[in-house]
Design brief:
Structural class: alpha+beta
Distance between the termini: 69 Å
Radius of gyration: 23 Å
Strand content: 15-25%
């Protein structure tokens, strides 16, 4: 730990070593300090910016432990309430472009929080797709209906095979990605034409 004018301070190198943080993360937080409340430097040490250790620790602690918000659930909350492993939840999230997984309602650092009611409704639909021919299904659900591997059906959105139906609805997500929903009957008709 470094000192400046008799008080404990952190340089970026100190923070990287003490907290296992990357330089690019630290630089990003500092650049965005007006929005995130990052402390101002206490001065410089050997031409490196230095921050008061107690002030930086308090800011970092508050950033790591967001206040619970009613109606929001973390990945751990969802795992315990739905009897799922973290691995399964991470997999569902990684396949969000094809399975329609909801976007987080709140982020704090790398932690994500979902609107629990919205996530639960999505998960129930994801687990048990409807038999209704007019039901809208995600690309992942269409793939399962056709017996395709998720990695195979993913490309259908941008490079559809001959006869692949157009989406019945398309929604732009907060991330800018498109969520395509297909009529179940159209997918079944495609399956009948290709067999």
């Amino acid at each position: 730990m470094s000192t400046l004018d008799g008080r404990r301070v952190y340089t970026r190198a100190d923070l990287m070593e003490a907290h296992g943080l990357g330089r690019s993360t630290l630089e990003k937080w500092y650049r965005e300090r007006e929005a995130n409340g990052h402390p101002e430097p206490a001065g410089t040490l050997d031409s490196q910016l230095a921050w008061d250790a107690a002030e930086w620790d308090a800011w970092f602690q508050a950033r790591q432990a967001p206040e619970p918000r009613p109606g929001l659930a973390s990945r751990d909350d969802l795992a315990s309430r739905h009897g799922l492993s973290r691995h399964t939840l991470k997999k569902l999230w990684s396949e969000r472009e094809t399975n329609g997984h909801p976007e987080p309602a709140h982020r704090s650092g790398k932690a994500m929080y979902w609107n629990e009611a919205e996530w639960t409704a999505w998960y129930e639909r994801h687990r048990e797709p409807s038999d209704d021919p007019d039901a809208l299904i995600t690309l992942a659900e269409a793939g399962r209906l056709l017996g395709l591997a998720p990695s195979s059906v993913t490309v259908y959105a941008t490079r559809p095979p001959k006869g692949w139906p157009a989406p019945a609805e398309t929604h732009t997500l907060e991330s800018g990605r498109l969520r395509r929903l297909y009529r179940r009957a159209d997918i079944l008709a495609y399956a009948n034409r290709t067999t």
